[in-house]
Amino acid sequence: MRRDLSILLSLILLIGGCGDGGGATLGTLNASTGCGPQAPSRPVFKSSLISKTLFNRYLQFAQEHWPVRGAHAQGVSATVSGNITYENREFSTEGFTGDTTWEPIRFMQVQVVRESDGAVLASGATDLNGDYSMSFTNSGANGVYVRVLSKTEPSLNVHLEVRNNLTQNRLYAVRSYFFNETAVPSPVDFGATVASGSGGAFNILDVLTDASELVSDLQMGTAPPLLKAYWEVGSTDGTCFNSALDAIFLLGKATDTDEYDDDVIVHEYGHFLAEKLSRDDSPGGPHTINDSSQDARLAWSEGWGYFFSSVINKKSFQVDTLGGDPPNHDAFFFDIEGPSFSGEALYSTNELAVAAVLWDIFDDPTDPSITGTQPEPSFDTLILGMSPIWDVFTQALPTASQAKLGAFWEGWIALGKPTVGMDFIFFNRQIEFFEDSFESTDTLPTARKISVGDFEARTLYLSNFRNDEDIVAFDATVNEFYTVETLNLINGADTAIEIFCCDSTYMLVGFSDNRDGQQYPFNCGLNCPPNGFLTLSSQRAFVAVQNGTHYVRVTRSVSAPASAGRFGSYVLRITSP
Which string of DSSP letters, residue by residue, matches 389-429? Predict the structure, then answer.
């Protein structure tokens, strides 16, 4: 039978059961996640219209293959084979192009089903090319069909499902025409179309299959855990990963539908992998790629998602489509090579900067399979691939106190990964994971003197990852007013200042944590302070009680909120009116 007819006659189902308890109500999501079930207000799919010509062709086919009602006394054994595909929507950096391609439905569960009572007579799986072959015996009423489910075959090394919503919790299924097992047509090909609504479910599975296969390879054949994705036409639930359910939720609304947004799908899968195989401390919440004062945990989490998505989809840019086909199309896109918004994508507290760093460690500019919109930067000489990044992700980050870019770098060093060229990659994004030039004088007896009115840039970083102490000295005059402060904090710095007097007595005469006097709890959730230039800076004004050398010691605050960086940079300034 010709593919166009068989596809148009494929019936689109939403099924519960299949031995998995489908259709049960699983309850609601935590409201703080931003993901929740949406009860459908109308049938999810409608029957497709068939033209009169195609209908007549179908009747002719049915006369040859339509089953004759009645049961087989001894049972009839047969083998059915064919190919199953789905219709994929093409997109560019401008949105959907209006073109579609047919792609194989790979590694999904396939069943032979008796038409009269829905009994499953055989189960199998499609292969890499979407091909299948199953032998079965029908001892009941004549007539069977083949269907493919939106879940991977359990015996395979990929564990994925796509369901419609939490309330109904139903798998998608696409079925062939039904036929007489005594005259099995060859092949029995069918597919999932865009128009039917089922094509999107199988695109989600196809993209996630690519990601799951790479993870399995990186883990020496060990498959990642089962992931459930929830999506349906019209859904406003998403797009996000919910850690409580180990599930991702994808938008299905007409103005922003994500079932064909490959980059968005894999980004959410990246969050799932961080939760299950690494560590993810992100509080979630709204975020933008040009915010350089983000929670350091969120910046790492989102940056990892963009990076992982680019690795899987073999392109350095990310696209989130909006609207439909031309002319009603649009998209938001950015490149992590370069990156886009280069003047704003700075510091370890920016998600795009984190993605750019990881990409520059990974990418091979000579690989023709990887595409991008930006040229390879001259400073990027590393071609290390995914393996060392994955090692740190799965071996070092799980035991870190918080998952941040600083913790990634600390794990990179601990696992003995290559460091040559890394400084250029970090510095390009103004991420200062290096000691400043004054560390040798950072003790009270050896402190360097600076003049009142001077300022100097320092980093709160030591190569052995111990807590850094930056110490300077200055001459003070009795009864004079002085202000000691930290400014221009970047990379998640949170400073604390101590002032000592005088000469070698080292008597504490002043202290400041946050300049505004506010204290933030470590577990600040969605109410953490931004990592701005001044928010976590320090300032102490005092009157000198005697002449002599005074000392300033700057450290990372012991009261730093979880949102602050592992390290950080700042400017120290001492002034007197």
Answer: HHHIIIIIGGGSSS-SHHHHHHHHHHTT---TTHHHHHHHT
